[in-house]
Amino acid sequence: MTFALVVVGVLGLAVGSFLNVVIHRVPRGESLLRPPSHCPQCTSPIRPWHNVPVLGWLLLRGRCADCAAPISARYPLVELGTAALFVAVAARFGLSASLPAWLYLAAIAVALALIDLDALRLPNAIVLPSYLVAPLLLLPAVVVERDWGAGLRGLLAMAVLWTFYLVLSLVYPGGMGFGDVKLAGVLGLYLGWLGWSSVAVGTLVAFAIGGVAGLALLVTGRAGRRTALPFGPAMLAGALVALFAAAPITSWYTSLLLPA
């Protein structure tokens, strides 16, 4: 299993490198393939050995090889963060039939969270295809594990969360965008697959994180009451918390309601 985790970690580094391109280009409507990776300042193409995840940035000491323009440290951090998340997901689910689906969720979570923070958008180019990709990646697990109940529960939770967020967006349009509604359906599919407790934990934690972050920005003066704040990162963080800790959180909360 250790060797498998190393392989998944290396895969995460490579995916993280690609996600840097996605995060930069998708909000701008640019092609992911053309032109090849280049310095945004001098447009010089990045040499293949400088494009190696993390090591390339270290080799360049965070500067372009041609014009010496600084290269943000976020690039290697995205690569390392994606690799760490891939390893955590692989450790959680093992070499199961559903692992590719969870790795896909981890990848789009990184991309969507950072794009929403940068541009206050959850691009359709990433969210909408996930309504097809995620079920297709989960289907082998349904067949291999013969867990049709998980598949049906996931589809039902997808509809429930989508409807719940849609109602919120209609009641409070200033605080919830339709991009959040579309993302809710995808997260509902995954959380519903795990169980209804995961749906509840993921949703509640998302609103808790969003509320705390919003309050902190208000208190520090970095946002006002009318400032638009991204909610996608909180939704994705809530889903990841549920992914790894729904059971202990549910047990703790139940113990508060029903003390021994």
Automatic annotation (TrEMBL):
Q: Name one Pfam family in it.
A: Peptidase_A24
Compartment(s): Cell inner membrane; Cell membrane
In this chain the Prepilin peptidase A24 N-terminal domain maps to 10-93
Which Gene3D superfamilies does the entry link to?
1.20.120.1220
A biological process from GO: signal peptide processing
Query: Which InterPro entries does the annotation name?
Result: Peptidase_A24A_bac, Prepilin_IV_endopep_pep, Prepilin_pept_A24_N, Prepilin_peptidase/N-MTase
Tell me where it mainly resides: membrane
Output the superkingdom of the source species: Bacteria
UniProt keyword annotation of Hydrolase present: yes
Q: What is its EC number?
A: 2.1.1.-, 3.4.23.43
Q: Keywords on this record?
A: Cell inner membrane, Cell membrane, Hydrolase, Membrane, Methyltransferase, Multifunctional enzyme, Protease, Transferase, Transmembrane, Transmembrane helix
Can you quote a single GO CC term?
plasma membrane
**Bilayer-spanning residue ranges:** 102-120, 126-143, 155-173, 193-219, 231-253
Q: Which residue range or ranges hold the Prepilin type IV endopeptidase peptidase domain?
A: 104-214
Q: Name one GO molecular function term.
A: methyltransferase activity
Q: How does it sit in the membrane?
A: Multi-pass membrane protein
Instruction: State the reactions this protein catalyses.
Output: Typically cleaves a -Gly-|-Phe- bond to release an N-terminal, basic peptide of 5-8 residues from type IV prepilin, and then N-methylates the new N-terminal amino group, the methyl donor being S-adenosyl-L-methionine
Instruction: Give the UniProt family note.
Output: Belongs to the peptidase A24 family.
| Free-text function comment from the UniProt entry | Plays an essential role in type IV pili and type II pseudopili formation by proteolytically removing the leader sequence from substrate proteins and subsequently monomethylating the alpha-amino group of the newly exposed N-terminal phenylalanine.
Protein name as annotated? Prepilin leader peptidase/N-methyltransferase
